[in-house]
Structure formats: C-alpha cells, structure tokens
Amino acid sequence: MTRYFFLVGIGVLLIRVNGFAAPTLSLVSDDGLASSSGVANSSDVLTLQLQLDTDGIDVSALEFSIGTSASTASQILYGSTPVSALSNPFTSGDVASAPQPGSTVDSTNLTTFTKGSEGDYPAFSRQSIAVFQFDISSLAIGQQYTLTPIGSEIGGADSQTSIFAPPNAFTLTVVPEPSTAALFAVAGGLLAFRRRMQSVVA
User: Fold this and answer.
1) How many CB atoms lie within 10 A of CB 10?
2) Is 66 exposed, middle or buried (0-12, 13-18, 19+ CB in 10 A)?
3) How far is it, in rounded angstroms, from Cα 76 to Cα 144?
4) pLDDT in tens, 7-65
5) Beta strand pairing status for 37-41 and 77-85?
6) Cβ contact 112:97 at 8 Å
7) How far apart (Å, rounded) are the C-alpha atoms in residues 136 and 27?
8) Cβ of 126: how many Cβ atoms within 10 Å?
9) Among 99, 91, 97, which Cα is nearest to 117's?
C-alpha cells in the first residue's frame, strides 16, 4: 500500500507538469456531513459515500477498488447491498461489476461503472456518485481503521487515464454499543458508591 501511494504521488507530479488531469476519489460519511472520519459500533452497518472529481475529464467508465487497514483477523466485509449508484451521474444500470455481499474489502475486489448508453457524462467537480455498505462486525472496539478508494482507470471517448490524485480516505473508530457503554457506566457508578459507603463506615 505504501508503494502504491508513492507511485501515485510521482504519477500526479508528472501529470501536472505535462498538463494532464488527475481525477480524485474520496470516501466520506453518509450522514449529510460528508466528513472524512466517524465512529460506529461493531453491530452497525457502515455506509459511506464515494465521491469523484473528474478534473476536467468527460467520463463514461470508472474502475476502482477500496483498500483497508484492517488485518486478516479483523476483516471489513461488504454488506448486503455492497454498492448503490446515486444517478449522479452513474445510474444503477451503469454498475457493470461490483463486490459480492459478504466479500472481503481489499484492493483486488473491483467495482466498475460503465455508461450504458452512447456518449460520455460531462466532466464534474467533486460530488457523491455512489453509496457503499460495509459489515464491520469483526472489528475490535477502540481501534481505528481506514478505508481508501483506489482508482484503476477512468475515461471517456477522448481521454483515459490510470493515474489518479492521492485519494481521500475515511477513518473509522469502533466504539462500544450503547447498551454496553451504559452497563459500564452503571457498574462504575455502583463501584464509586460502594467506596464512598465504605469510607463513611470507616
């Protein structure tokens, strides 16, 4: 993964020097705030929006994957509806291939959007184009994980590139379920009360 980001950085530098585009992929929260970090408990279904800035490229096709910092023991999986296009501009009919429900989130599990009709979608600046759903039930409480969109190829009739700008990752912090947190709070309160009573008796 480190080597990937190094190569992307060199590619972006060369592209900028030569005046070519460098599209950008981002993963953000699906809560209306579009933030690059968030918290969730392991029983939640995590949904994130994928954003794309084509940087001036008219587009009819996009191929990418999502990488994660999760280890083999703490895998992030795709949920029951791995990806939903937002018709902005890609539609559900443009989803040519997508990860299977329950499959592992990693850089080899590709998603491909291909415009189902002739012509390209006009170039656009950063906007949400799809929603992804993740199963985070195996993740450890109190740990942070990153999910990173990794572009493979993008283009239209007149321009294609496999070089993307550095992506914007999403950082997830796993927290206890509300019921678990409440039990800890009650237990802590009882322990503190017991200590106070003991000190009074003493």
Assistant:
1) 11
2) buried
3) 12
4) 444 444 434 434 578 999 999 999 989 999 999 998 989 999 999 999 999 999 999 99
5) unpaired
6) yes
7) 16
8) 16
9) 91
At 182, which helix (H) or strand (E)? helix 178-201
Token pair for 60: 């009819």
Are 151 and 19 in contact by the 8 Å Cβ rule? The answer is no
Reported pTM: 0.80
From the list 117, 166, 116, 139, the residue with the least C-alpha distance to 1 is: 166
Kindly tell me the sign of the dihedral angle through the C-alpha atoms of 61, 50, 52, 75: negative
Give CA separation, 169 vs 13, 43, 178, in Å: 20, 22, 26
Name the average pLDDT for the chain. Answer: 85
155 dihedral zone (left: phi>0; alpha: psi -120 to 50; beta):
left
Cα→Cα distances 141→56, 138, 177, Å: 41, 9, 9
Say if strands 45-53 and 61-68 run parallel, antiparallel, or are unpaired.
Answer: unpaired
Query: What count of residues does the chain have?
Result: 202
Residue type, 135: D
